[in-house]
Structures are given as structure tokens and as C-alpha cells.
Design brief:
This protein is an alpha+beta fold and about 170 residues long. The chain is built from 7 helices and 9 strands; from the N terminus they run βββαβααβαββαβαβα. The strands form 2 sheets. A 7-stranded mixed beta sheet has the order 4-5-8-7-6-3-9, sandwiched between helices. A two-stranded antiparallel sheet has the order 1-2. A hairpin with a 2-residue loop joins strand 6 and strand 7. Helix 6 packs across helix 7. It is globular and about 45 Å long.
Length: about 170
Amino acid sequence: MVNSRTAVEVSGQVDRPTYYITPVGEWVNYERGVSAGGIAPIDKGEVARFLTESQLGCLSTDRLRAYGLGNLTTDRNQRMVEKMMEGDHLVFYFDKTLRSMGRVVQVVESEDLSLWLFGDRRYKFVVFLDDFRELGLPASTMAESLYGKGDGVVRGLRRLSELNGTKLEGLLG
């Protein structure tokens, strides 16, 4: 489902990854899929039955990280997920802090995988991640840098503009 991307020069500019910020709705789902005390919580062998050979081949490690996104009352999240490209970054917001981020490897649409991972079919857009890192950046610092004001509260999956993605990259170092 995720689109592949290579760094391509267009008019002297390199195609940059897009940054997405998502609020963590339920901390337990974050721990089940993304980070259990900093450790990748998913065993590749356990999710193999939910994936095609091609999907499984995209996952290069035995320990995996994944986060489920779903639609609420509209298909807004689905439209955003369909724009995600391999190499984009998903940043996790929780308790007024940008907690962590990972690089998108692929997105798999699977209610069965979602049910197995998170106990709920609603999070059917499962985003597999690598290059994970903890952040600990106050959301207010992000909001001030990107928007010049605000409390930094993230209320839904947000796709940053290229300019704001570059600013966030600078903040994260």
C-alpha cells in the first residue's frame, strides 16, 4: 500500500521525506506495537500469517514496530495514509510531548492484523516502521517553531508541509 520513493533531484532539489504527526490515542497500543520500554515489541514470525510474501520481504529485521491508524467518522486518515511514502516519518504525540518517531517502511491494510496487534479492527492501516528513536520534545516548542504560536496539541493525524517538515527536522537534530 505504501508508495516507494527514491531521492530524486528535481530542479536542483532533493525529494524530501514527509513528516506525519499522530496522537497516541491508547498508550497500550503504542506499547504493543511501537515501543515496549524502547524495545521493538513485535516478532516478525508472529505477523507472517497476516502478510503476503512481498510484504514480509520489505521487513528487514526480526523485531518489528508497527502502529495502527483508522478512520473515525470520515475517510480522512485513509486519504493521508494513501499518500505515505516509504521513507516518510511518523512522529508520535502523547501527553503534550513528541515522544518518538520512526521511518515508514510500508503500510498494510488488514483488519485481521489490527485485531491481532491491537485487539480492535478499526486500526486497519498498519504502518511498519524502522529507524526508531525517542524524542521527548515538548509539543509547545514544536508549535512555536512551526507555527509561531500555539500549545502544540495534536488532535488527529497531521501531514506537515515540506517547510514545516524541514523546521521539525532542524528541531530534532
